[in-house]
Each structure stands twice: as structure tokens, then as C-alpha cells.
Design goal:
The complex is a heterodimer of chains A (about 650) and B (about 180).
Chain A: H1 2-30, H2 33-36, H3 39-62, H4 69-74, H5 81-86, H6 92-112, H7 119-143, H8 167-196, H9 202-232, H10 243-268, H11 272-295, H12 308-336, H13 347-377, H14 387-404, H15 418-442, H16 447-473, H17 482-507, E1 509-515, E2 520-523, E3 526-537, E4 541-552, E5 555-560, E6 563-567, E7 572-575, E8 577-579, E9 584-593, E10 603-611, H18 614-631, H19 651-659
Antiparallel strand pairs in A: 1-10, 2-3, 3-4, 4-5, 4-6, 6-7, 8-9, 9-10
Helix pairs in contact in A: 1-3, 1-7, 3-6, 6-7, 6-8, 7-8, 7-12, 8-9, 8-11, 8-12, 9-10, 9-18, 10-11, 10-13, 11-12, 13-14, 15-16, 16-17, 17-18
Chain B: H1 5-26, E1 45-47, E2 55-57, H2 58-61, E3 66-71, H3 76-88, E4 95-101, H4 105-115, E5 121-125, H5 129-134, E6 141-145, E7 151-156, H6 161-177
The chains are: A alpha+beta (about 650), B alpha/beta (about 180).
């Protein structure tokens, strides 16, 4: 009975989503407050039913309701309860339910925290979110029903993909969805601004904290995904330029451009049309990612089972939403454009250069991702591009950003002073060169590692000099407002990230070896002794578990247990063993036994020594922190706007006062 | 006009994606055209399974077309195609050559004893080196080689009745129509 309730809940949610999208937008157009007032209650109602459907699916998993096809496909009696919860988003149907669930979390948050905004504007924003909701609810109900029954009910189910049976999986999908579904809010703000022909740029200030939070979640999600791929897939890599990874990375690139462009538009009024366009792009790329992952148009290591019907549905929706908003942009953007002029040397210019680089990088990634499709379309045969293409172009495009990034803040809005820049850049350059020369002795003259140290020092010194400058020049309490602190955190994160990427890429040592018990391999200054393989047992798997004892100069460092697991349904999954450290990771993955009959004999093993690899995720976490901290800035709290030192009066102040 | 550019760009993209959906309904994404089609089969020289002292090679097989079938006792999908081969081998019109891939000879013999042996010639390659030359990435795979030692058709995955009737037999018929 409960699965049917779930389905009914989704149908009711769809009806309410219709009400939430049509009535408020028409109401805003006709200036009818009764119709506009529908927006919030409809959003709350829709949220209630979507949460109910979600909880019912979790319930079905927890209670082994194998009469539900989706539950039977993705769980079994032996699966522990926490993986039965994560199994909810372990395959296509449930992950779509998670998508719509998170869209509703954002919508509810917006409905709750927008009481100070003008009613017309909120009606339009919630209306746009309603349209997106309609599309996805209809998609779930017509093509991907998670509550479909399976009769007769099997005694036991299949299994959750073993790759997904990992703590990282509990975390990665919801967070990454929080990110790219979160861009729907910035998108809705932009569309509302276009619809209303907003002459004020006040809406950008309201949109900024939402965009920053979404961006921070997306950053966190990508970091988690990368870490999970590193720990779980057993390939020892952390980024593969796979279509699905690219699908999350393109919105991130455009989103990064967007949060910077929003700052310009909010403070100076310039780049308004560009900000709107970026908001549309960021969300469109999220939708495109959903399309690519689920339509089967591109193959990837972690795409979902494909179905052309689903692809067609999302494509039609994509054309409606993205095509519609870009057409709206073409028609209305001239109305909202404007702003103050700025000089060649100014903070606006610096941000604009960064913006262009990020956008071009996103376009480059998009092109690379779609290349196999373009090859088919132009009849060029099977082509795909991989790490050589991305690995060459991406660093080239990011180079100007790394060089510019620490010094943007020194430039004033409108017109900056090149003289100040010369002084700090010279100091950063000297420090970078000095550290790079010292580093050269430690890294055997490996160019990539030296460049990594140099670039990281360049960024760090630039950021630190700015921190001291603020400390000296500003009175206590006004030195580091949250918005600026967030920016400094994120920029510093780039420095840590650079160390992580360039040092781990150039200094890592790998060895694929055959090892008999008792044999020792020497890698990166460590001795790995293989102590044989024994069988072991988990809740729903059995495994061949190796023991590798690592010593350095005779001193014990770690005892590692890589596994090769066989899950309930005979699916095999390698579980690598990682000894993590601040300055290096040791990583051991179990390959194949030399003789299948004698697992206590020699095995093929893959051993890694990866210096500084943690730093790249740490850098990502700093960027995430920056996003969250910035979003907390007092200036973004609409209620208090009247007290804040706003550079210019905006509509919100007046409106929130009249409402109060 | 410039404001319309993003929209126009998007329409191109949407067209491409639409094409992608249409293309995928008609094409199997996993089908990778073998670069070996219409090229000479790679050189090989392998011992026979039942008489390891004797070998056969690409040269010794010249003169008559044959179907080279890559199989192994450990390969589950091979068990799927085996009954089809067992039933249809006599009607193929070409010799069915078995290529036992990365298998222990005793395992292979036991497997054939249990399931039947449809092969007229049976060679074995425990190292799998020849399979690499042939570009085999998973058993079962089948190669139709003509009288001049040229690969004319390749099938990845089990040969089902459907594949046999709609692809393999027409390919063999085409071979036999050609002037010698």
C-alpha cells in the first residue's frame, strides 16, 4: 500500500507544482496579489508531498519491500541498513527522486527566507522553480517511476552496485545535487529579473548568498566525488575527465564565473546582462549534465542505464527551459543592461578576464565531452578525446587565473592603481622564485613540482600581503567582513590545491608487481612487505584480504589490508588500502592471484606512493569554506539592509520597510 | 542580434543532442568497428588442443574460408553461444575453428566433454598473445576469415540464432558468391 501512497504523493506534488508555476507568474504579470499569494502555500504543499514520497521510498528500502521493482533491483536482505538508505539514490529512478527532493529543499528555504523581498519578485522566482519542478516530477511519473510494483514479489532482491557501497556514497550524491540543483535558485532570480525587466540590480544582492551556498555545495560534492573515486575505484587517480565528472565540473566552472560576476553587478551595476547569462548557463549545464548521464548518448564509467525515451523527455524539457530562457534573454536583456564604466586596470577588468577564462574552459570541457557525438554527427568515425586534450588545454586556460587571482583585490572598483600592483607582484614573484629554487633540490628538478611550489607561493604571498594590508589600513571590526574573508579562504584554497595537484602528479611513484608472501618492494623511500592473503568475511561480502606491512628505514609505518571483495550477487569489487598522511599517501590495491587455486601464494599488487595528494582535496575544502563564509555576510541579510553601509540605496530597503 | 547568439548556439547543441538520441536508437554504443575488417588476419601459430605437438598457423589455414571462434571454459557468455554453435556448425558452410583463449587445457577439455565439441579444428593459446593481435577484448568473439586470410566480418559477444541468421550467414553467403 505505501508505494501507491508514494505515487499519489508525487501526483499531488505535480499538481501543486503546476499551481506554483502558473498562478504566481500570471499573477505577477496581471498584478493580481491573490494569484501571487498562491506561490508560497503551493511550494509548501509540494514540498510536503515530495518529502513524503521520498520518505516512503526510504521506508520501502528499510523494510525490504521487494514488491517494489526499484527496491528489489537495488537491495537485498544482507545489505546493511545504512546502505539500504543510500540505495535510494543508487540508481536512476531514486536519484531523480533525490533531485526533486533537493529542488524542494531549496524552494522551501527560499519560500521561508524571502519574506523581505518584494512580493512580485518572489512570485516570479517561486514560479520559475515551480516550472522546473513540473518538468522533473512529470519526468519521474511518466518515465522513471521508483514505486513501480514487481509481482510476484521475489523472496530476495538484487544488489546495490558494490562501487556504491562505500561511506563516500552516502555523502557524495546529495551534496553534489545540493550544488547543481542549487543553481536553479540563481537561475530563477535571473529569469524573474528578466520577466520583471528589473531596472535595479537589487535582485543580484538577494541572489548572491544563494549562489555562493550552491557553489560551495557543488565544490564539496566534486571534492567528495574525487576522493571517492580515488579511494573506491582502485585506480589511484582522482580525476578522469569522464563525461559524468565533466557534467558536474562544467556548472562549477560557470558557477565560479557567476559568483564573481554577481559581485561586480551587485556593487557596480556593470555586467548585468552577463550575470544573467551566466546564471542561465550554470543551471543549463546542470540540466545538460542530467541529460548526458541519463540519456545514454555518451558512455561513461558511471552513467545510468539508458533509455532513449528518457533522453527525449529531458531534451524536450531542456529545449523548453534553456531555449525559452535564452530567448527571453535575447528579448529582455537590453532592458536590464547598464552600469558604471570601468577602466582597463580595475577590479572589474580582472574579474572579467577570470570570467572569460572560466567560461572558455567550460566551453572547452563541453566540446571535449561531446566530441564522440560530434564525430558521429559529422561522420568522422569513432573519436573521443581524453586526458591529453583536457590536460593540455585546461592548465593553459587556468594559468592567467592563477596569476591574476591574488591581486584582484588590490585593484579598486572602476579604476585601479597599477603602481600598488607592481610592488606586491614583485614581492610575490621574488618569494615564488626563491621557494621554487629551494624546492628544486628536493624534487629532483621535476619541472611540474617546481612550478607547483612556485605557483602556490605566488598565490599564498599575494593573499597574505592583502591580509596584512587590510589589517594595517582598516579599523578593527571592519578588516575582514565575511564576504572578503570567504574570498581570501577560497583564494588560499587555490594555492593548496595547486600544491596537491602538481606535486602529487609529478612525484607519485607507482609499481605494478608480482609479489610472493615475504617479498619486499621499495617505493618512494618506503619498504612494502607482502605478508600474504587470507579470506575474510563482511556483512554481505567475502573477501581475499592481503596484508602489506610498510616500513621506512626499518621503522614500522603501517599495516595495510587491501581487499578483493565478492558481494552477494557475485559482483567483484577491489577495496584498496590507503594509509593517509599530510605529506603523503600510501596506497595498495590487490590485483589477481597468480594461481587461482592458491590464494595464499603470489599476487599481483599495485603499490603507490603519492606525496601531497591530500592537499588537492584540502584546497577544495578551503574553496567550499570560502563559499559558505561569504554567503554569511551581513550585507546579504535583507532585513538589516537599512543599517548596512550599502553603497547605494536599493529597492529592497524601501520595500522591506514599507512591509514592516 | 548578438543577444540572440546564445540562443542560436543552444539550438545547435540541442540539434546535436537530438541527433545523439536518434543515432543511439539505431547504433549499439558498445559496437566498436574492428580496424582489422578487410585486413589480413594477424599471423598466428598455435598448438592444437588435443595434439599439442602439432601446430596450425595463418598460412596453413589459407585456401578456404573459416570462422574463428574465441572461447574459454571460464567464459560464461561462451556457454550461451555454445548450443547455437553445436547445432549450427554443420550448416555454416565454412570450417569452425576454435580458439581456446587463456584457458588451462584440462579445463577446456573437460568443458568440451560436458558441452560437446562443434569445432573442426581446435587450437589453444594459454598466454592469449594471439588474442591481443586480433584485438580481442572479451570472449566470446568470432572472426570470419576468407580464403586469402583476410578478416571479413567480426562479432563481439555470443552468437545467437538472431546474429547467426541475420549477420553471419549473409556474410558467409557473400563470401561464397565471390569468384575464387
Amino acid at each position: 500500500m505505501t508505494p501507491e501512497l508514494g505515487q499519489i504523493a508525487l501526483i499531488l506534488a505535480l499538481l501543486l507544482a503546476f499551481a506554483q508555476s502558473i498562478l504566481p507568474i500570471v499573477g505577477a504579470w496581471k498584478n493580481n496579489s491573490a494569484m501571487m499569494a498562491v506561490a508560497r502555500p503551493a511550494a509548501f504543499g509540494q514540498g510536503f508531498f515530495v518529502v513524503m514520497a521520498f520518505v516512503l521510498l526510504v521506508w520501502a528500502f528499510l523494510h525490504f519491500d521487494f514488491s517494489v521493482q526499484y527496491v528489489a533491483d537495488n537491495s537485498n536482505l544482507a545489505l546493511p541498513w545504512y546502505y539500504r538508505i543510500t540505495a535510494v539514490w543508487g540508481a536512476h529512478e531514486g536519484s531523480m527522486l533525490l533531485w526533486i527532493f533537493i529542488l524542494n529543499v531549496w524552494t522551501l528555504a527560499l519560500a521561508l527566507f524571502s519574506r523581505q523581498l518584494p512580493e512580485v519578485f518572489v512570485a516570479r522566482v517561486l514560479g520559475v522553480l515551480g516550472i522546473i519542478s513540473v518538468g522533473f516530477l512529470a519526468f519521474i511519473l511518466f518515465t522513471s517511476d521508483p514505486f513501480g510494483r514487481l509481482l510476484p514479489m521475489p523472496p530476495d532482491g538484487g544488489d546495490l552496485n558494490p562501487v556504491l557501497q562505500d561511506p563516500g556514497m552516502t555523502f557524495h550524491p546529495p551534496v553534489i545535487y545540493m550544488g547543481y540543483v542549487g543553481f536553479s535558485v540563481a537561475f530563477a532570480f535571473s529569469i524573474a529579473a528578466l520577466l520583471g525587466g528589473e531596472l535595479e540590480q537589487a535582485w543580484v544582492r538577494w541572489a548572491r548568498p544563494w549562489t555562493n551556498i550552491a557553489w560551495a555545495f557543488l565544490t564539496c560534492g566534486i571534492v567528495a566525488g574525487s576522493w571517492w573515486a580515488y579511494a573506491e575505484l582502485g585506480w589511484g587517480g582522482w580525476w578522469f575527465w569522464d563525461p559524468v565528472e565533466n557534467a558536474s565540473f562544467m556548472p562549477w566552472l560557470v558557477g565560479t564565473a557567476l559568483i564573481h560576476a554577481q559581485a561586480v553587478t551587485e556593487k557596480r551595476g556593470s555586467l548585468r546582462a552577463w550575470t544573467i547569462l551566466l546564471s542561465i548557463f550554470a543551471f543549463s549545464l546542470s540540466l545538460l549534465g542530467t541529460f548526458l548521464v541519463r540519456s545514454g548518448v555518451l558512455t561513461s564509467v558511471h552513467s545510468f542505464a539508458s533509455d532513449p525515451r528518457r533522453g527525449l523527455f529531458i531534451l524536450c524539457f531542456l529545449i523548453f527551459v534553456v531555449g525559452g530562457s535564452l530567448l527571453l534573454y535575447a528579448l529582455r536583456a537590453p532592458k536590464v543592461a547598464g552600469g558604471k564604466p570601468f577602466a582597463v586596470v580595475s577590479r572589474e577588468s580582472a574579474i572579467l578576464v577570470g570570467n572569460l577564462m572560466f567560461t572558455v574552459a567550460a566551453a572547452m570541457v563541453l566540446l571535449g565531452t561531446l566530441f564522440p557525438l560530434i564525430g558521429d554527427a559529422l561522420n568522422l568515425g569513432k573519436i573521443s578525446v581524453g586526458p591529453p586534450y583536457f590536460g593540455l588545454l585546461f592548465p593553459l586556460l587556468m594559468l592567467p587565473i592563477v596569476l591574476l587571482l591574488p591581486f584582484g583585490p588590490y585593484l579598486r572598483w572602476g579604476k585601479g592603481d597599477p603602481q600598488i600592483l607592481k610592488g606586491v607582484m614583485l614581492r610575490a614573484l621574488l618569494a615564488a622564485v626563491a621557494c621554487a629554487i629551494v624546492a628544486a633540490f628536493f624534487v629532483d628538478g621535476k619541472l611540474k613540482a617546481i612550478a607547483g611550489v612556485g605557483a602556490a607561493v605566488w598565490v599564498t604571498v599575494g593573499v597574505l600581503l592583502y591580509v596584512t594590508k587590510r589589517w594595517r589600513e582598516m579599523p578593527r571590526g571592519r578588516r575582514y567582513p565575511a564576504e572578503m574573508a570567504g574570498m581570501l579562504f577560497a583564494h588560499f584554497g587555490v594555492a593548496i590545491f595547486l600544491i596537491g595537484v602538481l606535486l602529487s602528479e609529478s612525484l607519485s611513484a607507482t609499481s605494478d608487481v608480482r609479489m610472493a608472501p615475504g617479498e619486499t618492494q621499495h617505493i618512494g623511500g618506503y619498504d612494502f612487505r607482502f605478508d600474504g592473503v587470507r579470506e575474510t568475511q563482511g556483512p554481505n561480502w567475502r573477501a581475499d584480504q592481503g596484508t602489506v606491512t610498510v616500513t621506512r628505514g626499518g621503522k614500522p609505518v603501517a599495516v595495510m589490508h587491501p581487499q578483493k571483495r565478492t558481494y552477494t550477487r557475485e559482483q567483484i569489487q577491489t577495496e584498496s588500502a590507503i594509509d593517509a598522511g599530510v605529506f603523503r599517501d600510501l596506497y595498495v590495491a590487490l590485483g589477481e592471484p597468480m594461481d587461482k587455486q592458491h590464494i595464499d601464494g603470489a599476487w599481483a599488487l599495485r603499490l603507490y606512493h603519492k606525496p601531497f595528494i591530500r592537499w588537492l582535496w584540502l584546497g577544495g575544502l578551503f574553496m567550499m569554506l570560502g563559499g559558505f563564509v561569504s554567503a554569511c555576510d551581513r550585507r546579504f541579510r535583507v532585513r538589516r539592509l537599512a543599517n548596512a553601509d550599502a553603497p547605494e540605496p536599493v529597492g529592497a530597503v524601501v520595500l522591506s520597510e514599507t512591509r514592516a | 542580434m548578438t543577444r540572440l547568439l546564445p540562443f542560436i548556439g543552444f539550438l545547435l547543441l540541442a540539434g546535436l543532442l537530438g541527433f545523439g538520441i536518434w543515432w543511439n536508437t539505431g547504433h549499439d554504443q558498445t559496437a566498436i568497428p574492428s580496424p582489422l575488417i578487410n585486413k589480413s588476419a594477424p599471423d598466428f601459430k598455435l598448438p592444437l588442443l588435443y595434439e599439442p605437438t602439432q601446430t596450425i598457423s595463418r598460412e596453413s589455414m589459407m585456401g578456404k574460408p573459416y570462422l574463428l571462434n574465441v572461447f574459454a571454459s571460464w567464459c560464461i557468455e561462451c556457454g550461451v553461444e555454445h548450443p547455437v554453435l553445436q547445432a549450427e556448425a554443420p550448416t555454416l558452410g565454412v570450417a569452425l575453428v576454435g580458439y581456446n583463449y587463456k584457458d588451462a587445457p584440462d579445463d577446456a577439455k573437460a568443458w568440451l566433454a560436458a558441452h560437446g565439441n562443434p569445432y573442426s579444428v581446435l587450437m589453444t593459446d594459454t598466454s592469449g598473445q594471439t588474442a591481443i593481435d586480433f584485438g580481442v577484448y572479451a570472449a566470446p568473439e568470432s572472426f570470419l576469415v576468407d580464403a586469402h586470410g583476410v578478416i571479413r566480418y567480426k562479432h563481439i559477444g555470443p552468437i545467437t540464432m538472431d546474429v547467426l541468421n541475420n549477420e553471419l550467414k549473409p556474410a558467409i553467403a557473400a563470401l561464397q558468391q565471390e569468384p575464387r
